[in-house]
Design goal:
Layout lengths: L2 E5 L3 E7 L3 E3 L6 E7 L4 E11 L5 E12 L2 E6 L3 E6 L10 H28 L1
């Protein structure tokens, strides 16, 4: 998800997050890209701010202070919304699903072997 903001004729900010949904404790990767068609950008300082924090949603704004063609200007993105949810609890016995899969596979192999032996005996 990318948001485009045009500022000062042909200088703009594109900001986005690697994902839209995160769980509490996840590392969020945010991107803020400043581009221009012809202007010379120098000495940009980028900062992020949380705007209107709500319980499970945060809107983050990328703000850049740049020297654009010799003049200090401030650019602000449209915002990137992150949805933050509680971490899902780990199952009490995470190994149990692998054990059940292994047992099912073993039963399938034994049933296949028995069927093959029955068919072989009938052919003789």
């Amino acid at each position: 998800m990318s948001l485009w903001v045009v500022a000062f004729s042909s200088v703009w900010i594109v900001q986005w997050s690697a994902r839209e949904k995160y769980e509490v404790g996840d590392l969020a990767v945010l991107h803020c890209n400043i581009s221009s068609h012809q202007e010379t950008l120098r000495a940009c300082k980028i900062s992020w701010a949380i705007q209107n924090p709500i319980k499970d949603t945060e809107e983050l704004l990328c703000t850049a202070s740049c020297v654009i063609d010799g003049t200090l200007r401030k650019l602000t993105g449209n915002g990137t919304t992150l949805i933050i949810t509680e971490r899902k609890p780990e199952p009490a016995h995470p190994w149990l699903k692998y054990l059940l899969f292994s047992v099912n596979l073993l039963v399938l192999l034994i049933a296949t072997l028995i069927c093959a032996l029955i068919i072989r005996k009938r052919k003789q």
